[in-house]
Q: What sequence folds into this?
């Protein structure tokens, strides 16, 4: 039987995995690359690093493989913005990463000028530097000659999927899929088209934009190590995890704990807009059917663990963080404000920065680490509370991403949310989603794709009251801090 190749281009690393038709990972290669932080709130990556690490991981898995590969699916960090020259193919500026906040002032101005409602109605998004539109505008306004070239049709924009398809396909296609398009703030999720009003608002020439296709479409041919492999699927990373977790039914919900954290609920054909800062987005388009989703985004998640490891030097590797995490969630009244780059849902505040509160002479490293982990659980709770208020029932939460290797964290999450946490056997749901999209593209029946849950965490009743009070205290600390800096 033929296998499938998944490319998973993430914020901190690129990965290639060969999956069997029954979704066993057969071969895997991963490479990290560096981000740079040239200014407060700025986050950049070199497109050449992104491409190089993707190519090298592809070569590594293909070289060692004697099996036939049926097709390839691509999943990627979303929103990250690359602009390159049609003529040379070279990017004119580093990739502006989704976490980057440099367009904060511009977004504020657009909101003050009353554009929020129109943008929300058309895109399902809030006006925020997170999405691609203002990042593209920044490049056009700040790179010498860029606007003139863009207007002359000499520049292309792409999110990372689009850049990779352009660079990896023999045909040098300029395409993107509906999920990535839905994160640019230029795509109308009602009409499923690029939107002229939005292009005018952000002052972006139409000619820069890629053609938008379904997730299970043709995206050209990848030529690697002498093999030609059809690229049969493209899907943004969070939507890919939704597919990888088989959240195909109404109300199915997943949360991915990687560098950032993203909770997503499938609402099928229903486009639901919530007022409180949760996003409406395209879940996927497969077999010609659009499924919408609600998304709660949290900017700082696994990067908090990286910071505790690399800057605070509290532990040597992410996995040993578990030894310092107090199982009962006790942090000696210390609270952590997880706002390295501001806060996303439901606060949407770019100005607030991180902090610890409540440190006494007695405070230990364990207390600070536990407070940091709890802040990730509590940010998730902020989102689940909003969903509950909007009559979206939560029975259980499917989790994945690097952090879910940490069992103590998963238990604490269950205790903080008071719901069952389900972890699949393969926590690489994101890469798996890309494989599944490629499979569906080649005729696999969506209903035959079933999930395998490995671990289930159930809430412990004895912690309910403590964590309820602690969550309220944390929330109070966040809200007071935000109102103090206003
Ligand atoms: P991404 O795809 O966003 O690069 P991953 O899903 O690969 O992220 O997850 C990596 C993140 O998970 C890192 O930020 C790392 O700090 C965190 N992480 C990995 N293992 C653990 C662990 N055992 N405990 C806590 N955090 C972990």
A:
């Amino acid at each position: 039987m033929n296998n499938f190749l998944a490319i998973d281009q993430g914020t901190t690393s690129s990965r290639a995995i060969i999956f069997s038709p029954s979704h066993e990972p057969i071969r895997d290669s991963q490479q990290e690359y560096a981000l740079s932080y040239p200014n407060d709130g700025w986050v950049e990556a070199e497109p050449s690093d992104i491409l190089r690490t993707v190519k090298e991981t592809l070569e590594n898995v293909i070289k060692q493989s004697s099996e036939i590969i049926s097709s390839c699916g691509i999943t990627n960090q979303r929103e990250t913005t690359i602009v390159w020259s049609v003529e040379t193919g070279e990017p004119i500026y580093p990739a502006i990463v989704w976490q980057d906040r440099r367009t904060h002032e511009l977004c504020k101005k657009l909101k003050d000028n009353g554009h929020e409602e129109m943008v929300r109605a058309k895109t399902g998004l809030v006006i925020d530097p997170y999405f691609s539109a203002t990042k593209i505008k920044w490049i056009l306004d700040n790179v010498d000659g860029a606007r003139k070239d863009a207007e002359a049709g000499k520049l292309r924009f792409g999110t990372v999927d689009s850049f990779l398809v352009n660079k990896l396909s023999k045909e040098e296609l300029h395409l993107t899929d509906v999920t990535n398009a839905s994160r640019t703030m230029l795509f109308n999720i009602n009409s499923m088209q690029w939107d002229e009003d939005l292009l005018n608002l952000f002052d972006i020439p139409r000619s820069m934009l890629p053609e938008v296709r379904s997730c299970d479409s043709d995206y050209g041919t990848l030529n690697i190590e002498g093999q030609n492999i059809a690229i049969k699927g493209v899907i943004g990373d969070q939507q890919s995890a939704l597919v990888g977790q088989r959240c195909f039914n109404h109300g199915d919900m997943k949360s991915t704990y990687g560098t950032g954290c993203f909770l997503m609920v499938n609402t099928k054909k229903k486009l639901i807009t919530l007022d409180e800062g949760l996003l409406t987005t395209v879940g996927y388009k497969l077999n010609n059917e659009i499924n919408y989703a609600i998304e709660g985004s949290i900017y700082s998640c696994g990067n908090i663990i990286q910071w505790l490891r690399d800057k605070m030097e509290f532990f040597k590797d992410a996995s040993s963080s578990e030894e310092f995490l107090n199982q009962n969630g006790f942090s000696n009244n210390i609270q952590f404000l997880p706002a390295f780059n501001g806060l996303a849902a439901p606060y949407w505040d770019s100005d607030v920065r991180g902090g610890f509160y409540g440190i006494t002479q007695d405070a230990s490293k364990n207390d600070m680490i536990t407070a940091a982990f709890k802040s990730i659980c509590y940010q998730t709770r902020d989102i689940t509370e909003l969903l509950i208020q909007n009559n979206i029932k939560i029975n259980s939460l499917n989790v994945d991403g690097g952090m879910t290797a940490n069992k103590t964290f998963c238990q604490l999450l269950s205790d903080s949310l008071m719901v069952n946490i389900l972890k699949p056997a393969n926590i690489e749901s994101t890469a798996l989603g890309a494989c599944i999209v490629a499979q569906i593209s080649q005729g696999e029946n969506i209903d035959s794709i079933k999930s395998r849950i490995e671990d289930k965490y159930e809430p412990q009743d004895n912690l309910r009251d403590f964590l309820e009070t602690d969550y309220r205290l944390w929330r109070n600390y966040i809200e007071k801090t935000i109102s103090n800096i206003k």
Remarks:
- The chain has a mean pLDDT of 93.
- The first strand starts at residue 3 and ends at 9.
- Residues 10-13, 258-259, 302-303, 305-306, 318-319, 321-322, 401-403, 405-406 surround adenosine-5'-diphosphate (CB under 6 Å).
